[in-house]
Amino acid sequence: NAEMKRGADGSIVAAPIWHEYMKQALAGTPAENFEAPAPAELPEKPMLNGQIGQANLAQIDRASGKLATPLTPPSFIEEKNFQEVHCILHYVNVNNILGPIPEHPESDAQYENWEAAVKRWATENKLGISAAQPTAYDDLHTEENKPNLEIRAPSDGAQFNSLNLNVEVAVTTKRAISRLEYYLDNQLLAKVTRWPFNLVNYELSGFGNGEKWLRVIAYDDIDNSREKSIRIYLNLPSEYTEPVVWLTPAENDKIYAEQLPYNLRLRINNYSLYNKVDFYMKKGDGSSIWLGYSEVKSAEAGVLLTEALPGEYDFYAVLTGKDGRVVKDKGIRVQIEEQ
């Protein structure tokens, strides 16, 4: 056998001869077209349906490596794509091609050789074959493994007339406690990471008076959690519930265009608790506009309002405490006029 010379293949030699022959043989006959076959539904099997393999997206618990359950916390759930790549004998019985997928495809004498070749080909072509999808379920995040938590003080229904909030808890767990989170209604107060995990001397400045829900959540090292809550009632002096008093402008004041730039000034109650104050304005349902900030060095702080279109605005301040806590005041409504 010798190598065929370039240009000696059928497309160059035989095909033109056949085309010329058929052109003369069918001269004068009507043209005929092939009819499209009726659509056929593809089998629900990889390979036979044109798919290389089955991909399964599963939620996996990061701690156990097993399938996530309703008790697996979102912080420990990751989605993994398990790509299966097999030879065709994995999906078909040679004696019943369109029948069910074989339960034991390895019983075919050729399966091992075909499967090894396909696995090698998939690896060489970087198809990303993944490990087998787990079938067992997360057994680390369970009701039994949740921390035990008790709020010892204050008692349910306690009244608070002073600024400081202290919470005493008792917490145990089968694993290791990671942290306790304290909330007043839905606002996070603090994360405590050291034993005995109590909340000590938290300053309640900026919270309105009335009924509040004090919530405590205990987490272990893989975020198994237990929550307890009680009602408390705040009856604090106004200097704590209203962190700022607007000096200029006041509620319902008008600012005229000719007054710009305008000096926005406010008085900060208990100013020694805060590091800075940010000023904002907001028109209707629009976005808030940051106007600037002032470091808190005394009871009064302010910024300049340099420009604003006519309209009704809400002005408000956001205080940043020395402990990092952020307090937003209720704000004032002001009308800006052209003349």
From TrEMBL:
<dbReference type="InterPro" id="IPR013783">
    <property type="entry name" value="Ig-like_fold"/>
</dbReference>
<protein>
    <recommendedName>
        <fullName>Penicillin-binding protein transpeptidase domain-containing protein</fullName>
    </recommendedName>
</protein>
<dbReference type="Pfam" id="PF17957">
    <property type="entry name" value="Big_7"/>
</dbReference>
<dbReference type="InterPro" id="IPR012338">
    <property type="entry name" value="Beta-lactam/transpept-like"/>
</dbReference>
